[in-house]
Amino acid sequence: MHKNSDEDAELALSNELYRIVNQLLHPHVKLDQTSSLLLRHKMPFDIGKPNQHDTKAEFEREFQIVQGAMEALRKLVPLFLRNEEKDEETVRTLDLLEADLDHNFMQNSPRVPINSVTNLIRSNVADVGAMSVIVLILIDFYRALRTRSDELEEQKDMFWNVPHRAPDYYARAIANRLAKLYAKETGQRPTSGSSGENGEPSTSFTRALEEIFQLLDIKSKPRSPADWAIRNLTDEDLLPEPTVGQILGLGPPPANLSLGSIFDIEQKGSRE
Q: Running DSSP on this structure, what letter comes out for residue 202?
């Protein structure tokens, strides 16, 4: 009974968040609420509380792991991308290497019966072309690491370089994620504001944020976190995700696609 109750609450929360977000994004786009194999009721964006560390040593260990992984991927993934920086001979070598690697993956992929979700995914990757899929997964992994790196940079400023903990970090994290979602889906920066008469939110973004705060039991008013999140948006946040073919160099690249934009080399490189 308790499990069913939790699932019902999770579904209700998912439904409400999608209603709020799709109302915010209308008429630009409508997000699909289809559940996945691994997530019963997915959310339109991450609503988890940012991980907190008990000691500065714990924080620094995670920070070093994230930075080291990002640096390794910046060196690894470009080796397998077909782009304007590669000459014809290198592209031809990549084609041959991809054929060999895909063959080897196919030979070593899990055999039937497939007895776990992990083995099913591994088998499907081998079936559709391992090298291309793995490169895409590594790019997604890099982006997840970069998001975590940004969170850790912010935690460093808010928690470990000051004598007290800021009370509104979760509110800022939610505002930041909603602002990035809005920017990515619409290509525009959201706006924030509040009424001079009663202090109520006066823009669709701050109204949506207020509703989400209420759902997540966040006590902060939406205006300050909204202002902070909008200020921290970058030009890259406004760009749509490149297609699979554009990332792998199998079609004409968009004007905004480069190794720098994928791996944030120009922007983050000087800081790391």
A: -
Dihedral angle of Cα 243, 248, 250, 252, to the nearest 10 degrees: 60
Cα–Cα distance measured from residue 160 to residue 52, given in angstroms and rounded to the nearest whole number: 11
Q: Helices 130-155 and 56-76 meet at what angle, rounded to 10?
A: 150
Burial of 217 (0-12, 13-18, 19+ CB in 10 A): exposed
For residue 272, pLDDT over 60 is answered with no
- Could you give the angle at the alpha carbon of 251 between the alpha carbons of 128 and 101, nearest 5°? 35
pTM of the model: 0.61
- What residue spans define the domains of the chain? 1-44, 45-268
| Sequence-ordered list of residues with C-beta below 8 angstroms from that of 47, at least 6 positions apart, any chain | 17, 174, 177, 216
Place 267 in a pLDDT band, splitting at 50, 70 and 90. very low
Spatial distance between the Cα atoms of 123 and 140, rounded to a whole number of angstroms: 20
Rounded distance, CA 136 to CA 130, Å?
A: 10
